């Protein structure tokens, strides 16, 4: 019995040196930029989650915290080391984009163009700069797309087993990747080839994916599915990177680069209309299917980002054909200029290129929310330490730190011990499950917790300080009040359920 599906096609040679060179250049740029500014709030959180290893967390699966634990063991307190893995993941995405282009009939020039378009994209540089689930998620989407295209283009059907294994690992990193096979399966139903759905290897691969994912599913089930609750909060706009629904589609024009939209749009049209790509048309249909699903459910605009490597790979041959017509020298100059402009704009907006002292006077944070969340954490912790040091000597040993969100708590966990601060507690996401303060009558220093909430729990709440990052960057912590609280009105066991917050 044959283990191949679809047409077996003659492929161009892979320009390995050039593809690896582009990937290495991206990784090199990301590593060079990795030590500027500081930790992102999510990075601080992942480092602490890595100290509380589990098969799941209220807001994520276990893989990224596990990787954070490994990095901390090898190079503790190194921001550059923390960001090395996402830089390598970004390099992998670039190389795989070129390989997908090859599977879709691209010659060596089109392979390089596809890889170059991905390399200069705003989305890739944004996720490749920070340690988090998104960098590894993008790599998983791209690798899964490459394997899927290989099978549908006449590759061995047994590759579905590798797809299943990779999907399972991807689901241990970020649940978002489940939408890729869902979109492709619906695309197969709509556009075929439907005989793929009868492949036993496809369904064996599905079993493998579920088996690998099962420990996280079991954890979620045992904890009342907190990620579903979190997803509802995100859909309602309860995230710093959430955008209004009316901006979902316009946002797609800037995820790669506005000047490179014709490349990926040509790829989408080619996947949907080119008879030569009929065998992979399901990947083209996955884009409008998932766009509609995310738009209707309140998904973030970047949720479609994992499909752009495929679209760029499919569009690159059409772009190369355009370059070779009419006045090729002029067109090549225009393409080179577009790539250079995209690289420059993406780097300025998504990487810490602008001096931190000037960041607050630029529109960068309006475009890239995450840039502001990498500024000011050492000064934040120092402000809390100054307030703690100003307490009467008798109150300091029993003082408790209470943070309103995981970024604040993570910063105090990271910098607090060196400043003589006590342990921090928070009701946000996984921090809530890591323990509540001891039942003592110690003074509480609270930051990021609404005063209305504090006044329910304490008889004496006084403003003690205000957070100022010192560089006029308008991020989530700038201007936040810090309170000194005494005379707790009820046991922590009664307060703690009221402080639990997912988001």
Question: If you had to describe this structure to a student in words, what would you say it looks like?
Answer:
The chain is mainly alpha-helical and 503 residues long. It folds into 2 domains: 16-350, no CATH class; 377-499, no CATH class. It contains 24 helices and 5 strands. The chain has a 5-stranded mixed β-sheet with strand order 2-1-3-5-4. It is globular, with a radius of gyration of 25 Å. The mean pLDDT is 94.
What is the overall silhouette?
globular
Integer-rounded radius of gyration: 25 Å
- Provide the succession of SSEs: HHHHHHHHHHHHHHHHHHHHHEHEEHEEH
Helix content: 55-70%
Strand order of the largest sheet: 2-1-3-5-4
Mean pLDDT: 94
Number of β-strand runs: 5
In DSSP terms, counting alpha (H) and pi (I) runs of 4 or more, how many helices? 24
**Major sheet summary line:** 5 strands, mixed
Strand content: 5-15%
Which structural class fits the helix and strand makeup?
Answer: mainly alpha
Can you give keywords for this protein?
503 residues, mainly alpha, 24 helices, 5 strands, 57% helix, globular
């Amino acid at each position: 019995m044959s283990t191949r599906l679809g047409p077996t096609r003659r492929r161009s040679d892979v320009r390995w040196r050039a593809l690896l060179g582009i990937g290495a250049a991206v990784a090199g740029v990301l590593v060079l930029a990795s030590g500027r500014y500081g930790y992102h709030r999510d990075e601080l959180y992942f480092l602490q989650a890595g100290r509380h290893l589990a098969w799941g967390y209220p807001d994520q699966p276990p893989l990224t915290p596990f990787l954070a634990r490994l990095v901390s063991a090898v190079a503790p307190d190194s921001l550059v080391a923390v960001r090395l893995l996402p830089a390598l993941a970004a390099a992998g995405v670039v190389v795989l984009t070129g390989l997908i282009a090859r599977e879709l009939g691209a010659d060596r020039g089109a392979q390089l163009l596809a890889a170059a378009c991905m390399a200069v994209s705003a989305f890739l540089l944004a996720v490749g700069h920070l340690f988090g689930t998104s960098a590894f998620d993008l790599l998983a989407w791209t690798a899964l797309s490459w394997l899927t295209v290989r099978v549908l283009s006449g590759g061995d059907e047994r590759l579905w087993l590798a797809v299943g294994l990779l999907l399972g690992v991807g689901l241990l990193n970020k649940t978002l990747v489940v939408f890729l096979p869902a979109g492709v399966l619906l695309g197969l139903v709509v556009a075929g080839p439907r005989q793929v759905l009868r492949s036993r290897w496809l369904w064996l691969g599905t079993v493998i994916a579920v088996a690998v994912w099962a420990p996280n599913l079991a954890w979620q089930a045992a904890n009342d599915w907190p990620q579903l609750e979190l997803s509802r909060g995100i859909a309602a706009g309860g995230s710093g990177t959430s955008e209004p629904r009316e901006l979902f589609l316009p946002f797609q024009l800037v995820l790669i680069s506005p000047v490179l939209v014709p490349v990926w749009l040509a790829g989408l049209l080619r996947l949907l209309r080119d008879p030569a790509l009929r065998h992979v048309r399901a990947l083209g249909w996955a884009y409008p299917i998932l766009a509609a699903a995310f738009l209707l459910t309140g998904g973030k605009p970047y949720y479609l980002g994992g499909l752009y490597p495929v679209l760029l790979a499919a569009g690159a041959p059409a772009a190369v054909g355009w370059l070779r017509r009419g006045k090729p020298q002029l067109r090549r100059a225009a393409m080179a200029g577009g790539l250079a402009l995209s690289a420059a704009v993406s780097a300025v907006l998504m990487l810490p290129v602008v001096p931190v002292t000037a960041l607050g006077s630029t529109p960068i944070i309006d475009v890239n929310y995450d840039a502001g969340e990498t500024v000011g954490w050492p000064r934040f912790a120092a402000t809390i330490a100054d307030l703690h040091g100003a307490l009467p000597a008798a109150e300091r040993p029993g003082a408790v730190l209470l943070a309103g969100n995981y970024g604040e708590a993570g910063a105090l966990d990271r910098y607090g011990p060196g400043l003589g601060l006590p342990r921090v507690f928070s009701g946000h996401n996984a921090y809530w499950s890591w323990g509540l303060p001891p039942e003592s009558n110690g003074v509480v220093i609270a930051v990021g917790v609404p005063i209305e909430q504090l006044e329910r729990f304490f008889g004496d709440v006084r403003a003690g300080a205000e957070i100022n990052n010192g560089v006029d960057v308008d991020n989530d912590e700038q201007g936040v009040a810090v309170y000194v609280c005494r005379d707790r009105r009820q046991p922590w066991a009664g307060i703690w359920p009221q402080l639990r917050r997912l988001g």
